[in-house]
Specification:
heterodimer, A: 6-stranded mixed β-sheet, 5-stranded antiparallel β-sheet, 52% strand, globular, B: mainly beta, 6-stranded mixed β-sheet, 4-stranded antiparallel β-sheet
Chain lengths: 114, 115
């Protein structure tokens, strides 16, 4: 079983609509959670951190459910420019030889259509 | 700040040849990471350094891969000999622990094609 799993999509979303998707993680001791965004043929970039209490950044809302071991990302009022692959990132617990490695999911593709 | 700089952007080489990928981290960052991305396997961590010292190379696929960081501003990932299955995008990223573990700027990547 992969440590971080995501629905690859694509999620086809009409412009202005809301889209939400989840990411599950297997290590209950994981400490930190993030969403990265990757545009086609570009490098991944940090979108937002995910806090236990949930957090918003403009049209984006991230949630963490530790009991069920998943995080979610919701995008409201989708824009064409939101089309990208969204990578779920989970940090491993720090250890003797591990700083807290970032484990990346394979990504969920979102396509916003006019 | 110029960000993480990788070179070359694209590399096409013949099977059996040696390939060297280069990375310049953001000045002052004390962690450097090498990732590989393919459609099949997604983004995989190959190796990372802290203060120029390799910390975890468990992701390096085999002995054909080696990485060095001779100083704080330069790292290389070498594949010798290269094989077609090494074709992928190789990303370098750097970070400063005090910034938080998730903030890790990536370079633009090197797209490697081995024919």
């Amino acid at each position: 079983r992969k440590e971080v799993e995501q629905d690859p999509g694509p999620f086809n979303v009409p412009e202005g609509a809301t889209v939400a998707f989840n990411c599950t993680y297997s290590n209950s001791a994981s400490q930190s959670f993030f969403w990265y965004r990757q545009d086609c043929r570009k490098e991944p970039k940090l979108l937002m951190s995910v806090y236990s209490s949930g957090n918003e950044d403009g049209r984006f809302t991230a949630q963490l459910n530790r009991a069920s071991q998943y995080i979610s990302l919701l995008i409201r009022d989708s824009k064409l420019s939101d089309s990208a692959t969204y990578l779920c990132v989970v940090t491993s617990p720090p250890g003797v030889d591990s700083w807290g490695k970032l484990q990346f999911g394979a990504g969920t593709q979102v396509v916003v259509t006019p | 700040d110029a960000g993480v700089i990788q070179s070359p952007r694209h590399e096409v080489t013949e099977m059996g040849q040696e390939v060297t990928l280069r990375c310049k981290p953001i000045s002052g960052h004390d962690y450097l990471f090498w990732y590989r991305q393919t459609m099949m396997r997604g983004l995989e961590l190959l190796i990372y350094f802290n203060n120029n010292v390799p910390i975890d190379d468990s992701g390096m696929p085999e002995d054909r891969f080696s990485a060095k960081m001779p100083n704080a501003s330069f790292s290389t990932l070498k594949i010798q000999p290269s094989e077609p299955r090494d074709s992928a995008v190789y990303f370098c990223a750097s970070s400063l622990i005090s910034q938080g573990q998730g903030e890790m700027p990536f370079g633009s990547g090197t797209r490697l094609t081995v024919v």
